[in-house]
Amino acid sequence: MRRRDQLQQCITLATVIICLLVLVGIWGIDAVCRLFSSANQVIYVIDDRPDSEMPTDIPEDPFRDTEDSDRSNPDSGDLKIRTAGIDIFGEYHVIHKTAESIHTGTLLQIDAVHPFTGNVNTLTGFENKNDYYRLKDMTLQVQSPVVEAMNEMAEAYYLFSGRADFLIYSTTEVYNTPGSLYPEFLPDRATGYCLDLAFLNDDGSISHITDNNNGWLLENAYQFGFVFSYTTINQSQSGISPAPYHLRYVGKEHAAVMHDNTMDLHTYLEALRSYTIEKSYFYEPMHLEIYYAPANSLGTTRISVDENKNYTISGNNTDGFIVCVSDTD
């Protein structure tokens, strides 16, 4: 009887030890999972603390006018920063970009130091143009988004002025022939995202677009995704004289940010190098997050994007990619 009691006690003790080992194992596995999850959890933070509580070692925001902007006013141009940790196993997934991809997209920095070397085999004609503008030559070609943007802009100009006198004079010709309306060397024409506009007069003659007669374009072109590549502001950087007739399509999102912050494309790309996916640029009016991803010089670049949102990725033609993520359709 005593031996039976001892055996039963041993069995009970063994059972307790086994249960304790199981509990310790479960606790350990849970702790590891929590640690991994917290390290990779996606967290968006919009820092709305008053200035008195902000840390003093924050690097200068290149998009912010520190003297004139008002932190309490969302329309003042003081755009907020979002910080995030990336969980590629959750809502994020990875896009792979080849080294050649930095030369493809709408946001290429193109100048004497950085020539265009991308592929333009996706050009299309203007078969889908509307009746609010004309073409100098029916063989002109552009990247397909340019046609839709030009259709929208020309219609808006017609509604404003009652005139349909925009003429697309040239598109992809880096040089026009001597004696032409716009013979200047403009290297970004080669991308297929550019338009040289003129006015078609009632008598059939063609007039230059100049600083004195392009006021509507200056005020409104950005709304349709166009910016001016060559201005008096960036002449020292580009080495090219101002071209008030020359528009480049960068997309409505990027054009709006540049317009609101009085930036040309060169300045914009330089500023974006300060914003990565961990500290992205937040443009509140259009619910955009924009960030820079440096290219892997040794091979494929891995870029994390939110698979539940719309996004675009463009090379910058120098050293990386610009990602633009939209919260809206």
Question: What do you see in this structure?
Answer:
This protein is α+β, with helices and mostly antiparallel strands and 329 residues long. It folds into 2 domains: 39-107 and 263-329, Phosphorylase Kinase, domain 1, CATH 3.30.200.180; 113-249, 2-Layer Sandwich (Muramoyl-pentapeptide Carboxypeptidase, domain 2). Helix content is 26%, strand content 21%. It is built from 6 helices and 16 strands. The chain has helices at residues 2-40, 144-161, 215-220, 235-238, 252-260, 265-272, and strands spanning 45-46, 81-83, 92-97, 123-124, 133-135, 142-143, 166-170, 194-200, 206-207, 226-228, 246-249, 279-283, 288-294, 301-306, 310-315, 320-326. The strands form 4 sheets. Strands 1-2-12-13-16-15 form a 6-stranded antiparallel sheet. Strands 5, 7, 8, 9, 10 and 11 form a 6-stranded mixed sheet that branches. A hairpin with a 4-residue loop joins strand 15 (310-315) and strand 16 (320-326). It is elongated. The N and C termini lie far apart (79 Å). The relative contact order is 0.14. The model is unreliable at 32-59, 65-80 and 84-90 (pLDDT under 50).
How many domain modules?
2
Largest sheet: 6 strands, antiparallel
What percent of residues adopt helix (DSSP H or I)?
25-40%
> What name is given to the CATH topology of the largest domain?
Muramoyl-pentapeptide Carboxypeptidase, domain 2
Distance between the termini: 79 Å
Structural class: alpha+beta
Low-confidence regions: 32-59, 65-80, 84-90
Q: What's the rounded overall pLDDT mean?
A: 82
Global Rg: 28 Å
Largest beta sheet: what is the strand line-up? 1-2-12-13-16-15
Give the DSSP E fraction (strand runs of 2 or more residues).
15-25%
- CATH architecture verdict of the largest domain: 2-Layer Sandwich
